[in-house]
Amino acid sequence: MPQMAPISWFLLFLIFSGTLLMFNFLTYFSFLPPAPTTDPQQATKLNPLTWKW
Q1: Cα 7 from Cα 3, distance rounded (Å)
Q2: What is the rounded CA–CA span in Å between residue 5 and residue 11?
Q3: What sign does the dihedral 18-20-23-27 (CA atoms) show?
Q4: Coiled coil: which residue ranges (predicted)?
Q5: Which of 2, 19, 50, 51 is deepest in the core (most CB within 10 A)?
Q6: What residues contact 4, with CB distance under 8 A and at least 6 apart?
Q7: CB within 8 Å of 19: residues ≥ 6 apart
Q8: Best CA proximity match to 30, nearest among 18, 40, 22
Q9: Helix residue spans in 1-53 (DSSP H)
Q10: How far is it, in rounded angstroms, from Cα 28 to Cα 53?
Q11: Which long-range contacts (CB under 8 A, 24 or more apart) does 10-15 make?
Q12: pLDDT per residue as tens digits for the range 1-47
């Protein structure tokens, strides 16, 4: 069974690492979370806290 030279293993490692990083970056930056919308009536209403201690 033929063996691979060390530079080939390193090149294979770089290709797989680059593919993994590119896949993760594309997956992370392709989804934009929806911006939270604040209701003007809800923003002005304050929730009073009643402490029971």
Answers
A1: 12
A2: 10
A3: negative
A4: none
A5: 19
A6: 12
A7: none
A8: 22
A9: 6-30, 40-44
A10: 46
A11: none
A12: 578 888 899 999 999 999 999 999 999 989 888 887 776 666 566 66
